[in-house]
UniProtKB/TrEMBL annotation:
The lineage of its organism: Bacteria, Bacillati, Bacillota, Bacilli, Bacillales. It is a multi-pass membrane protein. It holds the Pfam family CstA. GO terms for biological process: cellular response to starvation. The chain crosses the membrane at residues 6-21, 62-80, 86-109, 130-152, 158-179, 191-212, 224-249, 270-288, 300-321, 341-365, 391-418, 448-464, 476-500, 507-530, 542-560. It comes from Salinicoccus roseus. Belongs to the peptide transporter carbon starvation (CstA) (TC 2.A.114) family. The keyword Protease does not apply. Keywords: Cell membrane, Membrane, Transmembrane, Transmembrane helix. The keyword Transmembrane helix applies. This is Carbon starvation protein A. It comes from the Bacteria. GO terms for cellular component: plasma membrane. It is found in: Cell membrane. Residues 2-363, 378-524 form the CstA N-terminal domain.
Amino acid sequence: MNAILVAIIGLGVFVLGYRYYSKFIAERIYRLDPNYMTPAHKYKDGVDFVPTNKFVLWGHHFTSVAGAAPILGPAIAVYWGWLPAFLWVILGTVFAAGVHDFGTLAISVRNKGQSIGTIAEKFIGRRGKILFLFIILTLVLMVNAVFAWVIANLFITYPASVLPVFIQIPLAIWIGYAAYKKNMKMLVPSLIALAVMYFFAVITAEVSWLQIDLVSYMGGEGAGGLFGLGAVSTAFMVWIVILLIYVYIASTLPVWKLLQPRDFINSHQLTVGLLILYGGLLLTNPTINAPATNGDAETSWLPLLFITVACGAISGFHGLVSSGTSSKQLDKETDARFVGYFGAVGEGILALISIIAVVTLFSSVDDFSATYSSFNDANASGLGNFVEGAAILAGGLGIPTAVATTIVSIIVVSFAATTLDTSVRLMRYIIAEIGTEYKVPSLTKKHVATSVAVVSTAALVLIPEGPNGFGSGGYLIWPLFGTSNQLLAGISLLLISIWLKRQGINYAVTLIPMIFLMFMTLYAMFVQVFFEWAWYAENSNLLLFVLGAIIFVFAIWIVITSIQALSGKFDDELAKHRNDE
């Protein structure tokens, strides 16, 4: 199969989806009002509520939700063949992700910029809200652990990426100061910052002494490291500590000082990266030799495909960002279409090139089968396959392999870091909400809540020991991350459906993807939790089983509560909150 043809079909569907379907949703379903006073203006505080240009906000929103997931998920999902992953990415983006991301942003804007977890009380009652907050808190904690684990491992694997990534931090602070204190436009400074980053990417790729390789500093892989952990585990621990110190600071600063400008730089990274990869695709004109469907797969794609692709098609975490940070920065309500729906399209475009980069890496079906011999192998090698395949595509533009590999790894790390500190900020909000709910004043304090978020993340990443040894927490919880993430998306679509129904608006556009997603997710969670007990026991990971079982039970509880809400049980409770909208 010709890879360019696959790309053209996918991109064509995305263009049509944004041009027509998102416009229909904006005008007929969510009914955006250009004169509505958004929370960013109504509650402007210069810290979290900050009216923001829609292009800058799109940069923040997209890079916050992107992370490594729209790359990693599809890179794993091609285990079942490229065709199922391709179809779910394009159809899921247009009919599920766009609707979900756009919807959670719209409902939050109409509810004081509150998070989707807080809004839940208005539609499914206090008990449903508490259950939902527990699922959200668990998911955000897993996001923190997974992305901290991914970044630390990428720094160890690609040490040339470390210096350019860390140079971005002071550059972003300079841009934030220039934009908000000197009234400069962000575009030119952010392009300069990107040029500086890539200058260092070229230099560090070729000059070994500029590469911050902690494993080598400790004597190499065979060395003992600290406390007898080994050089690799010690380097991993050091990176985790450094990352968590950074995200503590980043997630407590006002959004304009670091979050927004750094995300704006990363949005240009996305543009440059996609131009390089799609340009390389046109010039190399590769053939897809991997199978369209993998008949030798040991596990069925149904339902696991729909929780594996995750952010490449739809993700509950996107709803947390939409309702947690983006809704507090939306300048005009009509900007929600561009920020929310087009943000999802950006994810789809990235997921599409991830699929193509991976499946064009192989010269034959046998080559593919040797690498993707099992689902565990796909999990272990997916991200590395993308980096390698993307470097080959970039080579079509004449970029040296070492430089291309460094640039790709920088892009992945930058997105993952953006997601990590946004996630910690969101976790701080949720902990504060729980503190308010249970009258624990100390948890409502910014630094206390952030400390709880950071310490719990460190514990989850560093304490567990599994098949990968010390620091395998992020790896071990990945199966539960996928199901919990999609479960959250399904519940968010349920809440949006209830919101629309109460307003007398046709809610089929949210109800249909919700039913499909909830069925697939609960099916997958049931199989994973209750039929794969032997896997959990064999790997001594009882925590994963217990968390999965609790979340599954809570999910069923919330679904039942939501069905009652759809039938009108909570109409009186909703009426009490009518004036809040």
